[in-house]
Amino acid sequence: MALTKQDIARAGLRLLNEVGLEGLTVRVIADELGVKAPALYWHLKNKQELLDEVATQMYLVHIRPLPPARRRDDWAERLAERARALRRMMLTYRDGAKVFSGTFFTDDALPGEAELEEIAAAGYTPEQALCVLSTVFHFVIGFTIEQQAIEPMPGKREERYEEAAKRLRARGGAVAAAAEATVFGDFDEKFEHGLHLVLLGASTETFKIGAKAKVQKSPTRR
């Protein structure tokens, strides 16, 4: 059977947990598919194109369209659900957030298009809606990159961070305890707290009406 970009990308997804981002090469994927590496270069010119396709397939495999909204004011909770789904998607794979971050989406469908329309329908300008959506997406990706740096796979802490946590516990005291809880605490709880802060800021009337601080220029002295 002739290979497609989608075949190659999904083979890459299958290998991510085994080899991670650094080990995910065209040659490794070719071995997985039982072909020679040059056969893959007919479809993908370099590793960046490979990662673009892998990230696209990751999204298409895991993220489903939202059901129709019941009310206009449901947008924040629905966006929160999408944020949680994106995080779960990236946590499914070793280095999943790094793979997804900064890649070019190769499918014609626009990620977040439905959410963008719902935010705008709630009374936001298109620019404000895009600002809200992109800020939430950036928070999710950044948070998950940091989480996966500490725990490459859920529940498996990277050795350096495990040693750092032990040193903090050994030091004792309120500051060390707070630092350990902040860095190594429950990631689900920290994620929900951060997501709440982002959506709370986006829901304020000040943001919604687009109020902006104006910088007053000092009068020219003569």
Which structural traits does this protein have?
single chain; 222 residues; mainly alpha; Arc Repressor Mutant, subunit A; Tetracycline Repressor, domain 2; 2 domains; 12 helices; flat
What would a concise description of this structure say?
With 222 residues, the chain is mainly α. It has helices at residues 5-23, 26-33, 37-41, 47-62, 75-91, 96-100, 113-121, 126-150, 159-171, 174-184, 187-203, 205-208.
Mind telling me which CATH architecture of the largest domain this is? Answer: Orthogonal Bundle
The count of helical stretches stands at: 12
Q: What is the helix content? A: 55-70%
Structural class: mainly alpha
Major β-sheet profile: none
CATH class descriptor name of the largest domain: Mainly Alpha
How is the CATH topology of the largest domain named?
Answer: Tetracycline Repressor, domain 2
Number of domains as seen in the coordinates: 2
State which percent range the strand residues make up: under 5%
- What is the general shape? flat
> What is the straight-line distance between the termini?
80 Å
Oligomer state equals single chain
What does this protein structure show overall?
It is built from twelve helices and no strands. By secondary structure, the chain is an all-alpha fold. The protein starts with a helix and ends in a 14-residue tail after the last helix. The protein has two domains: 1-62, Homeodomain-like (Arc Repressor Mutant, subunit A, Orthogonal Bundle), CATH 1.10.10; 71-201, Tetracycline Repressor, domain 2 (Orthogonal Bundle), CATH 1.10.357. It is 67% helix and 0% strand.
